[in-house]
Structure formats: C-alpha cells, structure tokens
Design brief:
This protein has 395 residues and is α/β, with parallel strands linked by helices. It has 2 domains: 267 residues, Queuine tRNA-ribosyltransferase-like (TIM Barrel); 88 residues, no CATH class. Helix content is 41%, strand content 18%. The protein contains 15 helices and 16 strands. An 8-stranded parallel β-sheet has the order 4-14-13-12-11-10-6-5. The chain has a 3-stranded antiparallel β-sheet with strand order 1-2-3. The radius of gyration is 21 Å and the shape is globular. The N and C termini lie far apart (64 Å).
C-alpha cells in the first residue's frame, strides 16, 4: 500500500508554482548623493522591500527562533542552505512537504545558497574539478558529488524563490593565478547552471549568478561581465568576508557593484556588521545575509543604538533598564539588562531566544530606516549621523 503523504495544517495557502511570471524588480527611489536605492522584489511568496537583510536559517531554522518571532521582527525573506539540507534531512524528506516552506512553516520568500561556500569551509577532502565538487560529508564521512546541475536541482526541490549558481570560493589571501582559475571555473559553472535551470521546470524560482575573483578588482570586472553576458535575473558578490581587511572588502564591492545591471537586484553574500550594511547600501547593494546577529546573540553580544554591549559585563548586574531604550522589539519591551545578563550567565535557553530576537530586530530595523532615508532623499545625512553616533558611543 502506498504511504500517505503528510499534509500539515498550516495557516497559509499553497502557492501555485506553475507558470509564474518573471521576477519583477522595481527601483522606487535613489539617493541623489550616493548609489543607495530602494526597491521592490516580487516573488511567488511575496514582495521584498529592498535594501533588505536576510536572517540565516541554514538548517531550515533561524537558530532559537520560531517563524512567528521572525515575522514580529519584520523579516521578509530568510536564507537556507543547499549543502546542509541536502545532507540532512535530505531532499526525500522535504519532498513530502512539497518544499522547504511547508517543512519549516514559513510562508514568505526563501533564498538558498548553492553550497559552494560550505564545500570550501566545511567539507573534508573536497576535490574541485570541471565536473563539480566531490566532497566528504562533515556529518558521517559519506562521499557526494555536487555539480552545477545537481545544485540547481536540489534548490528546485527545496522550493526556494531565489536560488544561487554553484561557485568556487577561495581563501584569503590568494594568488592572482588561483583567484583567476576559481573565477573562470565559476563562470563556466554559471553557464551550466543557467542552461540547466532554463531547460527544466523552473517553477517559481529565480537564479542568481555569483561574481568571484578574490580581492582583485580587474578579476571581479571580468567575472561580472561574463555573468552579464549569460544574463541572470539577479547577481551576487561572493567570496567576501573571508578574512580580508574591511577596507579591502569595501574596495572590491565598490569596484564590482557599479558593473552589475542597475535593473537587477545586487546581493552581497555573507556580510556583515551594521557598519558594513550601511556602507554597502551607500555603494548600491540591495540584499545581505550574515550569521552575525544570531551567532553574536548566542555569545552575549548585542547591537544597540548606544553601541555594542556584552551582556555578561558586571555593570549590567542590577541594571533595571531595557537593553535599548530606543528599541521596540519584544525583548526590550519586556526584559531588563539585569535579567538578560542573568539568563546568559546561567546558560538558560531563553537567553538565546531573547538575545536573537533583539539582534535580528536591530538589523531589520536598520534596513527599514535606510529604506525610509533613501525614499525621503536623506540617506547621506542618515549615513553621516549613523557613524557619528557610533563614534560618540565608542564603537
């Protein structure tokens, strides 16, 4: 007898994934003094207001947070990861739920990374060839092969709204020869991804190409042009925030972002601090993701309008004030610094949730403030005031 497919009783409707229109990206406003812009990115699971930060839900969950927590923080889109979800729980499990949205009870857009960075950072004995990346699982040592085509297929099975080409990420520092070889392989893989995606059942997905080239601006220019020639719905800068100095990261982004089509969304992967987000929006970036807000929250580091706090600090022992008096997140509305310190030092699980709620809210509120500044033509003043406040608070 055939086994019945489990259909969870979720509170959102199933989208009709067939015959979805081409992704629409509309620029609503541009800042007259910088390259900052605000826009609308339309997907099958909803509209994303840009510039936007995407909380990282690598394993199908943003650590310690329920989807309702994310919605309350203002999350519009979250990120999942091909490498991790392919290994565990596996596509066969997620297929039973018709994709990642139902599996994790998230009815808004999802972006999935292709797995290239995880192969670079996690996989044992990875072997990169023209065919793809052969790797050993960090979970059980089993052997696997990820090709440009299978990376696309896995992401389609996950049901992500935005999917990424397989790319080769390299360490910092890298020689120009190594950076060029990885960049050229990434470009060849991108063409294969595009052809496979175009020929198959794309459903509601939109494929982004990834610009590589290490810290060499001329290689970034070559990579950008190669991807533009292939033509993608959107473009990303990969291989940043891999240990390079911040000034180098900004210089590479400043060189590469203007080369990408202004009519397409521009995504900087794996970046970064609040300072990075403000400076990169000024340079024309639209989308970001980073584990920093949740990882730092679990380590007791909290971002506030008064600077970055380490909640374990003894000065918070009997502090009755909210974490940030200018923040309206759930944590700041209900709990004191003293209580947050107590939870953290006691290693209570609630500490991770409350700290993560605050940091995610801080990041998303920062993006909202930047969008409003762009729309009112005051982004340059916002940029100046943001860094002046950081300096005044000793950050």
């Amino acid at each position: 007898m055939a086994q019945a497919r489990y259909k969870p009783n979720l509170k959102f409707p199933v989208s009709n994934f067939q015959n979805q229109p081409t992704m629409q990206f509309t620029i609503d406003a541009t800042d007259p003094n910088t390259r900052a812009r605000s826009g609308r990115l339309e997907t099958a699971h909803g509209i994303i207001q840009t510039p936007i930060f995407m909380p990282v839900g690598t394993l199908g969950t943003v650590k310690s947070l329920a989807p309702e927590d994310l919605l309350a923080c203002g999350a519009q889109i979250i990120l999942g990861n091909t490498y991790h979800l392919y290994l565990r729980p596996g596509c066969d499990v997620i297929d039973r739920f018709d994709g990642l949205h139902r599996f994790m009870h998230w009815d808004r857009p999802i972006l999935t990374d292709s797995g290239g960075f995880q192969i670079f950072s996690l996989a044992k004995l990875a072997q990169i060839s023209e065919a793809g990346a052969a790797f050993q699982s960090h979970i059980d040592g089993s052997r696997h092969m990820l090709t440009p085509e299978t990376a696309v297929d896995i992401q389609l099975r996950l049901g992500a709204d935005i999917i990424m080409c397989l790319d080769q990420c390299i360490a910092y520092p890298a020689t120009e020869d190594d950076a060029r070889a990885a960049m050229e392989l990434t470009s060849r893989w991108a063409r294969r991804c595009r052809e496979h995606w175009q020929a198959g059942d794309r459903r509601h997905s939109h494929l982004f190409g990834i610009v590589q080239g290490g810290m060499y601006p001329h290689l970034r220019r070559e990579s950008a042009q190669a991807l533009i020639d292939i033509d993608f719905p959107g473009y990303a800068l990969g291989g940043l925030s891999v240990g390079e100095p911040r000034d180098t990261m900004l210089a590479v982004a400043e060189a590469a972002l203007p080369l990408l089509p202004d009519a397409k969304p521009k995504y900087i992967m794996g970046v970064g601090t609040p300072d990075d987000l403000v400076d990169l929006v000024a340079r024309g970036a639209d989308m970001f993701d980073c584990v920093m807000p949740t990882r730092n929250a679990r380590n007791g580091q909290l971002f506030t309008s008064q600077g970055t706090f380490n909640i374990s600090n003894a000065r918070f022992k009997d502090d009755t004030a909210p974490l940030d008096p200018h923040c309206d997140c759930y944590t700041c509305q209900h709990y004191s610094r003293a209580y947050l310190r107590h939870l953290y030092l006691s290693r209570e699980l609630l500490s991770y949730r409350l700290n993560s709620i605050h940091n995610i809210h801080y990041y998303l509120n920062l993006m909202d403030r930047m969008r409003r500044a762009i729309q009112t033509g005051t982004f340059q003043q916002f940029h100046q005031k943001f860094f002046a406040n950081r300096s005044n608070n000793g950050v």
